[in-house]
DNA sequence: CTCACATACTACGGTTGACGTTATATGGTG
DNA sequence: CACCATATAACGTCAACCGTAGTATGTGAG
C-alpha cells in the first residue's frame, strides 16, 4: 500500500468524510507534505470501495453539488492498523541500520 | 518511495552488500514479509544509482560469478532517515485516528 | 552422470497505482 | 462577467513493482 492510499484510510478512520474533506484532512495529517489531486483521490476511493476497505456512508445534495461521504469499514480498520504496525517496524529497522553505519559521526569529526 | 525501495536502502545502510545479499537482508529485516524478486531488485538498484542514493562499492569475480557491491551514499542516508521519520509520523497519525474511531470497542461489546 | 538447488546477474513483458490535466456544475466575490 | 472555492468525473501517461525465464557455476543427492 502506498502513502496516498494509507493517508486516505487514515483520514476516514476518525469519521466519515466526503472527497474534498479527505483532501483537506490528508493535507493536515501529513503536515502539508501530501496534497491529493482529484485523479489520485477518486481513483483510490473507487479502488478502496471495490476492495471493501471503505463504504459509502451517505450522499447529500448541497446547493446542487453532490457530496458523497465515505466511511472506513471494519476490514479497512484492521488493514490500516496492520499497515501502521508495518510502517513502525520498517522505520525502526531503518534507524537501527543507520546506527550501525560506519563513519556515522552525527556531525562529529572523530574527536 | 515504496516499501521495496525503502528496504533496499535500509539493507545497505549498515554495510555494502551485493544484489543477492540485499535480497537476503531485506527478507530478514521485514521478518519474511518482503521477498524481493530479481526484477524488483535490479530495477531498483539501477534507479537508485542513477538518483545518487547508492554507489557501486566494488566488483568481485567469485568463481566466474560477478558480485557487484553497492553502498549507501550520504544523500541516500539522509533520504532514508527522512523517510523513516515520515513513516513514523504516518503510522502515529493512523493510530491516533483509529483511536478516535466511533464504536472502537477493542473487542468489548459495550458493557 | 544427471538432476536439483543455491548463488548471482540480466532481460522482458504485464499490471497496478499515482499523477496531471481537463471538464462539469454551482455559489460567492470583485 | 470573470475568477475562485467547492466537489466530482474522466481522460491519458508514467513510474515502480512483479513474475518469469535465461545464463552461468559449484555442490550434493540419486
Automatic annotation (TrEMBL), chains A, B:
Occurrences of domain Transcription regulator PadR N-terminal (ranges): 8-82
- Recorded protein name is Transcription regulator PadR N-terminal domain-containing protein
List the SUPFAM superfamilies.
Answer: Winged helix' DNA-binding domain (SSF46785)
**Which Pfam family, an example, fits this chain?**
PadR
The organism named in the record is Winogradskya consettensis
Amino acid at each position: 500500500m502506498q502513502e496516498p492510499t494509507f493517508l486516505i484510510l487514515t483520514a476516514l478512520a476518525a469519521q466519515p468524510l466526503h472527497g474534498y474533506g479527505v483532501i483537506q484532512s490528508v493535507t493536515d495529517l501529513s503536515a502539508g507534505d501530501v496534497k491529493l489531486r482529484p485523479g489520485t483521490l477518486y481513483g483510490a476511493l473507487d479502488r478502496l470501495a471495490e476492495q471493501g476497505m471503505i463504504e459509502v456512508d451517505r450522499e447529500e445534495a448541497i446547493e446542487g453539488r453532490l457530496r458523497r461521504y465515505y466511511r472506513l469499514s471494519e476490514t479497512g480498520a484492521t488493514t490500516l492498523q496492520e499497515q501502521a504496525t508495518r510502517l513502525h517496524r520498517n522505520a525502526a529497522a531503518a534507524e537501527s541500520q543507520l546506527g550501525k553505519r560506519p563513519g556515522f559521526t552525527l556531525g562529529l569529526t572523530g574527536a
